[in-house]
What does this fold into?
Amino acid sequence: MEPMLEQFRSAFEAVPAAVLVVDESGIIVLANADVNELFGYDTGELVGQPIEVLVPEDVRVGHPELREAYQALPHRRTMGSGRDLFGVTKTGRLIPVEIGLNSVHSTDGSYSVASVLDMSATVAEQERTRRAIDATGSAMVMIDGKGKIVLTNNAAYEMFQVPDGALLGLSIEQLIPERFRRRHVVYRTSYSAEPSVRNMGLGRDLFGLRPDGSEFPIEIGLTPIDQDGERVIMATVIDITERVRSEQEIVRQNEDLTRLNDELTQFAYSASHDLKAPLTTLDGILTCLNEDIAEGNLEEAVTNAERAKALAKRLADLIESTLGLAQAESYDAADFEPVDLNRLVEETRSSLGSLFETQGVDLRNDVPPGCLPMTQQIRLRQIMENLIGNGAKYSDTAKQDRYVEVTTEIEAEGLRIIVSDNGLGIPSESHDHVFKRFRRFGNHSVEGTGVGLALVKQHVDRLDGEITFTSSTDGTTFEVVLPSSGPIDRTSQVELSS
It folds into this structure.
């Protein structure tokens, strides 16, 4: 053994750490008791063996090149620097290690002194921490002082829909929409200067960004952590898409309740006017009827009986229309299916036949065979019956050729259904109230409840469609556009054969 090594043998043995010395050719010339214990060798067994005996087999071939590079430019390397390292024991077991290197020169030559630290306990603790973080249902992202992601858990990869490991090293700003990034850097820098625990739900509305460009609402809780003298920030991220959807649904329901409350008030007024007045009249007619019968005036009794019957029918129609409005809310669960529009118009012709005969109105069905909008049949039927029925009911008897015409057009937006007539038209001052409930306009000598067009509007809205109209003394045209793919989130399409 070289004189220098013999001189320092006792000093190396006294070091409370695993230390070994390697000569310029990579041969171990000194290994203290801690090294032997760490790698499972007997005293003196490592001396004379190449250092590669302690290097894992998968990197053993390239290790001499790395060793020679270090010897060419020797420098002090402290613990914790460089790559993750592993040593291999005599039995072949891999152990995580950290290695500190220093070079020593003497008259005997140059040597490399390596101190080896067993990191098994630390790695095991890190693994337990990793498992604990991965077991957390919430996404967790740790960033360093520069905003780089240094740690994530499985939930984060699932939330942002990226492969494992794909988030590490990214800037945290890459996970938020571009329009927020510049200000986020300011927020992050300000927070790092004065960090504090920030609970969920505080601060601005936030959004996450996935690689496909889709955005989703999130909440973030922030916790500053001092780690190895460096301050990092652990962010707990919650996808609140469902909560936002629920809140929006609550807002929608509240708006519906407000609307229904307004309609109920409107209905109460209509009931007091359109129901109470006819009932009072009916009571008077029936009183007269009793008197006619008592006096034997059968002709007048028959007249009063007919008047009572007509009033009873008007009341029944009003009640039936009101029930129709209530029932329309329950059709949402009905199936969407291809509906033969041409056939539906013909069925409407049949069901309203007496009205067309009485009014002397011709129904022109210009819907081509095979027009099959994907929709709810019960809603489309009521839309067509009301629009076609109104066209016939409010016909202009002063015109010789009275008609209601139904045509269709295929557009990018969907299927356009056009119902036009040359009837009385709707007065311009009533245009703003056409689709409101219990509102009537135009010729009030024609029987009606003021519910039909409100019901049409309700059905069109439920089908995610649109309805518009134009009207003058020359007639009225209603246009209903049903989306080409049916309602929102449905994929069936409108079909039209030649």
The first helix runs from residue 3 to 14. Residues 334-498 form a domain with the Heat Shock Protein 90 fold (CATH 3.30.565.10). The mean pLDDT is 80. The two ends are 102 Å apart (CA to CA).
